[in-house]
Design brief:
The chain has one helix and eight strands. It is 20% helix and 41% strand.
Length: 135
């Protein structure tokens, strides 16, 4: 009888250790820094240009396959791009057709856990601006 009790106690200890490791492993796991697909980058154009916005997503290898552009958005247009689930950031190149005041504007986003909204202003040929606004 003593040998049977010893086996039950040992099995109980192994079960307790396995449970502690399983629970402890869950506690030590860090939350993902990736984006929620509900979060987005939004633009509203008040510029007297056709505007292109090209999205370059940052994150794990392979995310570049999800890069894309919105093209030829006119004054009064609004559009948005949802963050891919695995994105950790984005660089958006904003090009104003016919703009002669310098290179395209660039927006860099490091926080994918919230929405980012922008308003575009400009008049041809040399004034173009990207303004951060409240969503």
């Amino acid at each position: 009888m003593k040998a049977g009790t010893h086996r039950v106690r040992r099995t109980g200890r192994y079960a307790a250790v396995a449970l502690a490791l399983a629970l402890g492993g869950g506690i030590l796991t860090a939350p993902s820094a990736a984006a929620s697909t509900d979060n987005y980058i939004s633009f509203k154009s008040d510029a007297l240009y056709f505007v292109d916005t090209c999205y370059e997503w940052q994150g794990p290898d392979g995310i570049a396959k999800k890069n894309y552009c919105h093209n030829a958005k006119a004054k009064g247009a609004t559009w948005k791009a949802n963050f891919p689930a695995e994105a950790t950031g984005a660089t958006v190149k904003v090009s104003f057709a016919g703009y002669t005041g310098g290179p395209p504007k660039t927006v860099t986003i490091d926080d994918t856990n919230q929405n980012h909204c922008y308003e575009l202003k400009g008049t041809w040929p040399n004034y173009a601006e990207v303004l951060r606004v409240n969503c």
